[in-house]
């Protein structure tokens, strides 16, 4: 029996490149790979990076949702306190909130989709690709240099 694991295979039995690719495209597989992978640092890196990438977008969507409601509340308070003059300023805050929410709902998912596709292609080609911010955090958590 060979004690040296195949660097081209993941612990779950599939090719390392395929496991890394699926981590980006199918979130639950990334979680399974992250939990089960013991040997292959390439696969573990991409699975954790994909998970952190997905979580970062969830945080951004929640932050945009909160900003939308803050803008709406501030607009309402200004409109109520200042009368007719405040109505225009209140409307401006509403519009800002709607723009933030619209950008988060349209640009956010498109950015995530593009980032996932690009990262999946890089992982499938065997590259140690780091997503800005998330990649550095992933390397630090795993204690590896990429």
Key traits:
elongated; 146 residues; 4 helices; 77% helix; mainly alpha
Outline:
The protein has 146 residues and is mostly helical. The chain has 4 helices and no strands. Helix 2 (27-36) runs antiparallel to helix 3 and helix 3 (41-124) runs antiparallel to helix 4.
General description of the model:
This protein has 146 residues and is mainly α. It has one domain (16-142). It is 77% helix and 0% strand. α1 (16-25) packs across α2 (27-36), α1 packs across α3 and α2 (27-36) runs antiparallel to α3 (41-124). The two termini are 31 Å apart. The relative contact order is 0.14.
Structural class: mainly alpha
Number of domains: 1
Strand content: under 5%
Oligomer class: single chain
Radius of gyration: 22 Å
Order of helices and strands: HHHH
Task: Count helical runs.
Answer: 4
> What is the overall silhouette?
elongated
Which percent bin holds the helix content? over 70%
Mean pLDDT: 87
Low-confidence stretches: none
Give a count of the beta strands, DSSP E runs of length 2 or more.
0
Distance between the termini: 31 Å
Main sheet attributes: strand count, strand direction, barrel closure: none
